[in-house]
UniProtKB/TrEMBL annotation:
Mn(2+), Zn(2+), Cd(2+) and Co(2+) support activity to lesser extents. Substrate binds at residue 65. It comes from Papillibacter cinnamivorans DSM 12816. The keyword Cell membrane applies. This is Diacylglycerol kinase. ATP binds at residues 12, 24, 72, 90-91. GO terms for biological process: phospholipid biosynthetic process. A divalent metal cation binds at residues 24, 72.
Length: 153
């Protein structure tokens, strides 16, 4: 019984994530950043501690984006009319995402900069034509993913 309930809560969580993925371009931008930073981390041969820090940053930004959408959705449920309090709540939620994103960019810059991993990344891309071709080929796919389709915005 508890296993069934656990499975059900995972299903609800997955449904919430899928909803935000379809609706919010910013989440798709964050996921694209996760892809490229992870790839750079592999090429840059980051160590365990650096990966742990990066994953905390990924989770923090994506989690903040999900909370932001939850607050936006609740605000819209309260009223679609202009409302100062709803507007403020949405601004604060957006501010929280910004704080997490800026902190994560700082952490990533510190990780790749201080360990010299950025040099390894550039060396790997420079010395391997297939890797560079794959890197360039992923860009249109990333743009299409971020733009979304149909009702996506
Ligand atoms: N009901 C409201 N009353 C006052 N200001 C609002 C309201 N809704 C949104 N705003 C202002 O507009 C900003 C953007 O809001 P929101 O994120 O909902 O817009 P959006 O991204 O265009 O909406 P959605 O994601 O639902 O399409 C908010 O941060 C807030 O400043």
């Amino acid at each position: 019984m508890w296993l069934y309930k656990l499975g059900r809560s995972f299903r609800y969580a997955g449904r919430g994530f899928a909803h935000v993925l379809r609706r919010e371009r910013n989440l798709r931008i964050h996921l694209t950043a996760v892809f490229y930073v992870s790839w750079a981390g592999i090429l840059g041969r980051l160590g365990g501690a650096e990966w742990a820090l990066l994953w905390i940053c990924f989770a923090m930004v994506i989690g903040a984006e999900l909370f932001n959408t939850a607050i936006e959705t609740l605000g819209n449920a309260v009223t679609r009319e202009k409302n100062e309090t709803v507007g403020k709540a949405k601004d604060v939620a957006a501010g929280a995402v910004l704080v997490c994103a800026v902190g994560s960019v700082g952490a990533a810059a510190g990780i790749f900069g201080c360990t010299g991993a950025w040099k390894t990344v550039l060396r790997s891309l420079g010395s391997s034509t297939p890797l560079s071709v794959i890197a360039i080929a992923t860009v249109p796919a990333a743009i299409l993913f971020i733009r979304g389709r149909g009702t996506w915005k």
